[in-house]
């Protein structure tokens, strides 16, 4: 668990981050979202002490991190940034091995970890380990950047717009990959984004920041249903708010249990947004929900879907 209490940062006379307090439980993903210059990156960089706070405290698993030497702390916290920052003259394997090598892992343990991470990110070790960063696509490089951040099994992963520079398809794909890996490893993630859709898809809790302050911190659904008037409402209140709301739930959340099929089959994990698109596309008003073995477990009607996306 990571807890931040009254965290502030001055740059000269400018107060870039003002009295932030929040908490992220183990295994959760927290997204910091807000307009450019609102203090997201500064907040993230104070968590691993790349920037020293002007005031406030940070606790990781109940321990005040100011008591931990910054170097040691950074090795316990993974950090992945937009544009990756891979070392251009080192192979992919060596890039990923950076922190394990600093920590003095044995060659065998380091090699095994590199192979494990490459496989986890669906990059064939035999093909990729010996390549150099410039020989990889942007999406592949970004995966290596995240793999490197995870190499020493950190308890916390900080990500600063990790998918910012990618095309929408690659971006969606990498978001799915990261969610899969995060579930597998149970790691805690704090990510900076300026993309509401990304925050809704990835995060358990979203902190909306403006001018150095957190204006609201809530689950995606609560944020969309009950945004605070003003900045937050403007951020989430566009015409696609109903679609965002639908994206926060899956068929498993709203299905009526049945055992007989009554329409096109969709998996329990399908988001209501995708289900709605599927029904519109197929021109039908009822769908069948199936589990991972293809067994019928429920049904959902278009009427029911519409209610979920309606104004609260
Ligand atoms: N090292 C620094 N020295 C002086 N001012 C800084 C420094 N780093 C950030 N700032 C200022 O602090 C404010 C917050 O910057 P920060 O990078 O945290 O914003 P951000 O929300 O991450 O923005 P973006 O989305 O554009 O990256 C900005 O006004 C910025 O100009």
Helix vs. strand class: alpha/beta
CATH architecture of the largest domain: 3-Layer(aba) Sandwich
Strand order of the largest sheet: 6-7-8-3-9-10
Q: How large is the count of helical segments?
A: 15
Beta content: 25-35%
Strand tally, please? 14
Largest sheet, described in full? 6 strands, mixed
Bound ions, cofactors and other small molecules, one mention each: adenosine-5'-triphosphate
CATH superfamily of the largest domain: P-loop containing nucleotide triphosphate hydrolases
Counting structural domains, the number is 2
Q: The CATH topology of the largest domain, please?
A: Rossmann fold
Question: How far apart, in Å, are the first and last alpha carbons?
Answer: 32 Å
- The 3D shape can be described as globular
Unreliable sequence segments: none
| Topology as a string of helices (H) and strands (E) | EEEHEEHEHHHHHEHEHEEHHHHEEHEEH
The CATH class label of the largest domain is Alpha Beta
Oligomer: single chain
Q: Nearest-angstrom radius of gyration?
A: 21 Å
Q: Mean pLDDT, as a whole number?
A: 90
The amount of helix comes to: 25-40%
Protein name: ABC transporter
Domain ABC transporter: 2-236
Family: Belongs to the ABC transporter superfamily.
GO biological process, one term: quaternary ammonium group transport
């Amino acid at each position: 668990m990571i807890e931040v209490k009254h965290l502030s940062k001055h740059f000269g006379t400018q107060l870039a981050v003002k009295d932030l307090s929040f908490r992220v439980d183990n295994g959760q993903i927290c997204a910091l979202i807000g307009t450019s210059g609102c203090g997201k990156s500064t907040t993230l960089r104070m968590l691993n002490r790349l920037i020293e706070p002007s005031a406030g405290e940070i606790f990781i698993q109940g321990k005040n991190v100011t008591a931990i030497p910054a170097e040691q702390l950074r090795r316990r916290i993974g950090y992945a940034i937009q544009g990756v920052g891979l070392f251009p003259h080192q192979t992919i394997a060596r890039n990923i091995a950076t922190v394990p090598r600093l920590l003095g892992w044995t060659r065998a343990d380091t090699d095994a970890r590199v192979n494990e991470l490459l496989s986890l990110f669906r990059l064939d070790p035999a093909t990729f380990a010996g390549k150099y960063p410039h020989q990889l696509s942007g999406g592949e490089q970004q995966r290596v950047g995240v793999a490197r951040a995870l190499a020493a099994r950190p308890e916390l992963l900080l990500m600063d717009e990790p998918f910012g520079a990618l095309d929408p398809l690659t971006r969606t794909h990498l978001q799915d990959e990261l969610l899969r890996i995060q579930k597998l490893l149970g790691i805690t993630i704090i990510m900076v984004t300026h993309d509401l859709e990304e925050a809704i898809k990835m995060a358990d809790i979203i902190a909306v920041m403006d001018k150095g302050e957190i204006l609201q911190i809530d689950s995606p659904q609560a944020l969309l249903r009950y945004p605070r008037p003003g900045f937050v409402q403007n951020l989430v209140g566009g015409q696609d708010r109903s679609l965002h709301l639908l994206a926060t739930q899956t068929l498993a959340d709203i299905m009526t249990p049945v055992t007989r099929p009554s329409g096109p089959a969709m998996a329990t994990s399908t988001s209501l947004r995708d289900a709605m698109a599927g029904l519109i596309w197929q021109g039908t008003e009822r769908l069948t929900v199936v589990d991972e073995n293809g067994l019928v477990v429920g049904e959902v009607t278009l009427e029911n879907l519409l209610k979920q996306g309606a104004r609260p």
